[in-house]
Write a structure and sequence with these properties.
The protein is α/β, with parallel strands linked by helices. 42% of the residues lie in helices and 24% in strands. The protein contains 10 helices and 11 strands. Helix 1 crosses helix 8.
Amino acid sequence: MLSLYVTSSKRNEGKTFVTAGLSATMQSLGYSTCVYKPIQTAGIEHNGFMQSPDLTYVKSIDPYIDTHFTYLFKSNLEPLVASEKENELIDIELIHQEYVRISGISDCTVVDGDRGILSPLAPEIQTADMVKRMQLPVLFVVTPREDAINDTLLSIYAAQEKGLEIRGVIINNIENDCSKDLLNSIPRVIEEYTNVKILGLLSRFEGKLTPEDLITNILNGIDIESVFNVKIEKLDLN
């Protein structure tokens, strides 16, 4: 069973984009794949029903990917605040039980985070505690920006302090005009200060994105075998 927790230090880093890309790629390589979103804030109401925008996006990339969520909040606030506002407290034991059930029916399970690794979920419980309960390795997604190094180092140090396994870092949303000094410094400093490996570089997509384009770019831009810590025979045959 291959499992992974995908997160970022800030919102709008393209975390769900990477989740969708990794999942669609693994599915294309013959692994039955599931995306689990334990907690979704900023849920969208559609035809009288609440929907997870992140899982809807995953389905738009590959409708055959199995998707699940446990908590879905309309509020676009931190999970703890959203859960209190909507009177539905978050139980990480329930999330763990759901994860065990879901991961048992797929070859590969990608767990998509909602906020940062220290985001509070319940009194005295943070996202890192949930990830540790599920015993998942963590993949950080980072966008090149001036404060990316500081934010990423803080997140990695926090994850390490919590005893989490960190699989690596993906640099995402690289603009064509991105400063070479910035793009070169982020991977170098992260690896030098944390011993955490950069496992991929992904350019920003412009225009309509097809599943085939996304999978091709994931395979070309990410060391997917290192991301999932597995040897993939189909990649050796290509």
